[in-house]
Design a protein that fits this description.
Layout (H helix, E strand, L loop, with lengths): L4 E6 L2 E2 L5 E5 L2 E5 L7 E9 L3 E11 L25 H18 L23 E7 L6 H6 L8 E5 L7 E3 L10 H14 L14 E8 L5 E7 L4 H14 L5 E6 L14 E3 L4 E5 L2 E5 L9 H15 L6 E5 L5 H7 L4 E6 L2 H13 L5 E5 L2 H4 L2 H7 L4 E4 L8 H10 L3 E6 L2 H10 L4 E9 L9 E8 L2
Parallel strand pairs: 4-6, 11-12, 16-17, 16-19, 17-18, 19-20
Antiparallel strand pairs: 1-5, 2-3, 3-4, 5-6, 7-8, 7-10, 8-9, 10-11, 12-13, 14-15, 20-22, 21-22
Helix pairs in contact: 1-11, 3-4, 5-6
């Protein structure tokens, strides 16, 4: 089908998923990297019966909403795609997305939706970044259009937007506090000076594959260097140099990953220096963060998320609370101080081990944790042994809950269900499946990821007795 260049297209609104939307002869046109109020020439890349997709090749006029992006890598790097929007506009669009999803997909009758809780920090708010090595850096459209001589140098940075095999060489990232940039730059300089090979994503070869940096609010730092080949001598030299250059690194680990995927869950991660973990502190609780531990990547906003979740559960100290998809037990331990007992369930055994260790670290004895699939664990016999839930909290991954898990929740019949989600669309779908047994009585959006379209949302559902 013909893919035309459309001229003088006015961008009307932000659509679900972060792309902007225009209308052309009654047909929806999705365009990334523009904002409502822009007028652009758009090259169509995909044409279907009911919609089109394209990208802006020229901006005819700028929206009054636009602000200058603060990062030199904006537009090439796959992250922080909303830097050109002021933060109050970002949160307004996210609130709109939550409400539209619950009404359109969830078919829910909503109470007044609480104003979104903005992030305390909009830069340097993340506690974890994963940088990728590549033997050839990503070449931007701008470089090509300028006709300059292009150097195909190695890269250490983030994947280019939508491209699994292209990596933008990052000079400075604004997402994580120092020493994040300094550590990344030192590793790059060391590797180039010694001629260490950067990983080829397509050919699956090369010594240096990934660099992961985790930080805690009290200043502790974890660094993991992932190698694509098992070469002890250059590995030891790099790790020793890194530890000597940055005595502030609390713990330094490494992995050798010769697989076709980047997952670390099934790999051994030896400790090169330090205890092998860092400690995060939150609301008087301490959490041990290992190299494979999951924790929210915006720790200051996670505190608000956990407090709001506990508040919406309306705990009096007498309840039995079930926390589904408990992860390392953060929400469960927050709830345990206000409940009679908490039962956490998670499918990942390593996460349950972390949750039990965190409970012991905080002297919390009224929280128990179990590993297994929700629908298999929450049997009638399990509920009889541990007590039927007065309240449930569920915080599933982006895909939402399996219908069998929803059936299990309906059978357990808690009076209150607090549903935490990083994907309002799947959250709304699941809520629709729980009607008419439950009705929505409170909605609280939370912005965990400034400068992106992602939004967290908490919904309180109450059972119609």
């Amino acid at each position: 089908m013909k893919k035309p260049l459309l001229e003088n297209i006015e961008i009307l609104k932000i659509a679900a998923g972060g792309k902007s939307l225009a209308l052309v002869d009654g047909k929806v046109l999705f365009v990334p990297d523009v904002v409502p109020g822009d007028v652009a020439d758009v090259q169509v890349t995909r044409k279907r019966a009911s919609f089109m997709e394209g990208f802006a090749v020229r901006l005819r006029s700028y929206s009054p909403l636009r602000v200058p992006p603060f990062c030199a890598h904006f537009g090439a790097c796959g992250g922080c795609k909303w830097q050109h929007l002021p933060y109050d506009a970002q949160t307004r669009f996210k609130q709109q997305e939550v409400e539209e999803a619950l009404r359109r997909i969830g078919k829910a009758s909503l109470p007044v939706v609480s104003p979104i809780i903005p992030s305390p920090l909009t830069r340097e708010y993340r506690n974890k970044l994963e940088f990728t090595f590549s033997d050839r850096r990503f070449i931007t459209r701008r470089e090509i259009s300028e006709g300059a001589v292009i150097e195909h140098t190695p890269a250490l940075g983030f994947h280019a937007a939508g491209l699994f095999d292209k990596v933008v060489d990052v000079a400075r990232c604004h997402l994580q506090p120092e020493p994040s940039n300094a550590i990344r730059d030192f590793v790059r300089r060391h590797a180039l000076a010694r001629g260490l090979s950067f990983y080829s994503i397509r050919e699956r070869r090369g010594l240096l594959r990934a660099l992961i940096i985790r930080t805690a609010t009290a200043g502790q730092v974890m660094v993991i260097v992932v190698f694509g080949e098992d070469r002890p001598a250059p590995r030891r030299e790099l790790l020793d140099a890194l530890a000597d250059e940055f005595p502030s690194i609390t713990t330094l680990l490494y992995a050798v990953n010769e697989k076709g995927n980047d997952a670390l869950a099934d790999l051994h991660l030896p400790v090169h220096r330090g205890p092998g973990y860092i400690i995060e502190e939150m609301d008087g609780l301490r959490f041990k963060i290992g190299p494979k531990s999951f924790c929210q990547t915006n720790p200051l906003q996670a505190l608000n998320l956990y407090r709001e979740t506990r508040a919406l559960a309306r705990l009096t100290g007498n309840e039995t609370v079930y926390d589904l998809y408990t992860g390392a037990g953060a929400i469960a331990l927050f709830a345990a101080r206000s409940a009679r007992r908490v039962i956490g369930v998670e499918s990942v055994p390593e996460a349950i081990a972390d949750a039990r260790e965190n409970a012991a670290l905080n002297g919390i004895s009224n929280a128990r944790f179990f590993a297994g699939d929700m629908k298999d664990v929450l049997t009638a016999a399990f509920l009889s042994e541990h007590g039927r839930p007065d309240a449930m909290i569920t915080d599933p991954p982006r895909a939402g809950m399996h219908p069998a898990v929803i059936s299990t929740i309906l059978a357990a019949a808690p009076s209150r269900l607090v549903y935490v989600s990083c994907n309002p669309a799947t959250q709304a779908r699941d809520i629709q499946l729980m009607q008419p047994a439950y009705r929505v009585t409170a909605v609280q959006p939370v912005d965990m990821f400034p400068h992106t379209h992602h939004v967290e949302n908490i919904v309180l559902l109450e059972r119609d007795e």
